[in-house]
User: What shape does this take?
Amino acid sequence: MVTNCRQLSIFCLAMVLLVVLCSNTVTAQTCTGSPGAPIVNITFGSGIGTGLPLSNSTTGFTYALNCPGDGAYALVNNTNGCYSDWHTVTQDHTGDPNGLFMLVNASTLNRDFYVQQIDGLCAGTTYQFSAWMLNMVKTTAADPNVTFIIEKTDGTLISSFNSNIPKTATPAWQQYGFTFALPTGVSSVVIRLHNNAPGGLGSGLALDDITFRPMGPPITVSIQGVSGSATTVCQGSPALTIAANVGTCFPTTTYLWQVYRLDVISPAWADINTANGITYTVNATSAGAYQYRLLVANDGNLQSPGCRVISAPVSINITPAPQPVINIITAKTNICTGEQVLFTSFASGVGQGTPIYDWQVNGVSVNNNANRYITRNLKDGDAVTCTLISNLSCAAPAISPPITMHVSGVAPAITVTASANNVCAGTPVTFTVSTNQTTGITYQWQVNGVDAPSTGSTFVSTNLKNGNIVTCMVGSSTCSTPVSSDEILMKIIDAPSVNIAASVTTTCPNTPVTFKADQIPGASYQWQINGKPVGSNSSTFVAPQVNNGDVVNCLVLTSTACSAPIQTKDIIMQVSSSPTAVTVIAAPDTICQGTTVTFTATAGQTTGISYQWLVNGQTVTDTGNTLVKTDLKNGDIVACRASASGNCAPPIESNPVTVVVTDLPQITLAKSVYEIYKGESVTLGAAATGTGLTYQWSPATGLDKTDIAHPVGHPNQTTTYTLVVTNASGCMQTSMPVTVKVLIKDIIVPNSFTPNNDGINDKWEIAGLADDPYAQVQVFDRYGLTIYQSIGYKQSWNGRYKEKILPAGVYYYIIRLSSNTRKVTGYVTIIH
Assistant: This one.
């Protein structure tokens, strides 16, 4: 269970005062500063219901299932329904509603209510003995008076502490305890808890979390240069120093630092065997989440958990250094002197925001903070790189691989111009290029780096988009490769778009429809139906009526730049017309009961029509032009209503179709099971309702006739028959199964056989039993072990058990015939 930190602080302060004020506490104040790990931590567990009883050596009180009487205890997670003068406690001291605690009622006898021996202690070490308690009594009855006792194993008193557990208005857990020094020569003690208040007068208490732990000097651990007990640094940062301030307690103090890795699968505290001072240096070389703490003990006791104390941990989170990546490219690395070159960077792992770029030529910054770098000033052998500084915490600068340039020849001086920029979409733009050379010149115009169909000194285009980049690649006799002109970034203004909408797109004849276009200040509107102007100069147009298939749109002229008349998208109208007639046909219209029949409705108007089917005037869920039914009865009337979409006119109801449904024959069987002995016969009885009936029994095996109602059956073995009856309308019904069981009058069971594979009498052949497929055969040895069993006896027993020949001897059998007429028992001898 977890101890509340604030309560523990109060308790520790109380312990310090107790050390000063109590004469039976023999340790110095400096040995009550820092606790060690609990040697004993009795929480009583958790669960639903009551806990199991403690051992007799642990308590002298009697175990109870719930509310204990005088001198008794219970392990519970609540006290609901206990004594009226007791508090109702609904959780243990940690607040866990399922946490168990020990509920103790004072004894009229002088007994300890909790006892435990503790081994593995270190002489001269200070220990703390504490427990959480709650006074159960809320009336004027006596308060519990509890003594904490520490004894040697021979009963000699080492130290004790006594305290009343005062009443509280509401249930209130409080921690009580004290510290003491273990005398020389003692390594085991007995701890006792004793209630001095008498039973029968109140004094009931609840007990939880009994703790026994070593105590030592005050320990304060800090990270130098850090305020607080936690810090986060980047991987590769300078080392951090952890320092401890340890008070005086032990004659010879020893130290050991431990580390705890939070970000691994199975974290655990691990010794740092080389860290034995009051300081420790943490190198930030490996990323991870770490905690560090200091173990302090007297010399020789450091590896004894029961004799050492532990500092509070400090946390150091070493953040891994992100690895941003940058690469740069250029169209070509072999250029001419004075040729313009574009370098472009591609970066990853840079985080949010805009990173910083530092382009360098031969390691010297060119002061260009952009993801592109353009220059004409490169010389042969120049190396171009780019350094990226990302926005990620802890990230180191990333440097691209270099691009080494090869410069030879002289590039022509190129000038490129555009006849216009910032123009409307579709406007012709003429580009012109000129050079300082007049012979041996070639041209290739490009848009966004892709060749355009123009190789002269001029290029005209009407298809440019906003943001297009236009360049010209110029070849000359003084440079071995074409040279690019400067870029021209085009600004193209697109015409605005206009949307229109109709109040409805499916309507009834002679019904007005409202159309609306986007409202644009200063715009003029011309509505059109089927290409003919209609309406007025308004963003709204009301058509008094429309026809089926009419196409409605609008021409919009705006006052903005680049605005030519804009034709909106078309709206195609659908006008519903009422069906003139609806016809329903059924296929078939005369059926047997349960047969599927499909009805189809045909309306004079086929578009925009919805259907509603009716059976005997009641609507059904089907709404298509077909209806499929399997549950109709004779005389049911089926019809269909057809409606035009938009409810333009009342529905039209179809002709009614009356369904003729013929009932199936109803078969009555005289019996479902007959029993005969082999060689005998029996008449099968059946009757059916209807006219013009025909009969068909199957299978035909063992029947004198199959086409009559009462055939005579004489099968050689048990057989199951069915009867199909067909009436004059061809409607068929199948009967339930009829079984004729063929019984065996007698079987002949041999009393011996010789399974020696000589081909003579190798199997236990039982005459007549193969004719009974449901006979049960069991064979046992003299110990009652079943060594053979089967249902039916088509394969005779070969004297084997688990594929091995059984030894010679007498075996016993039980044979149950399927007729249950009798049980055959006896013995059979296996002879070798």
Notes: The chain has a mean pLDDT of 89. Helices lie at 5-21. The chain has one helix and 77 strands.
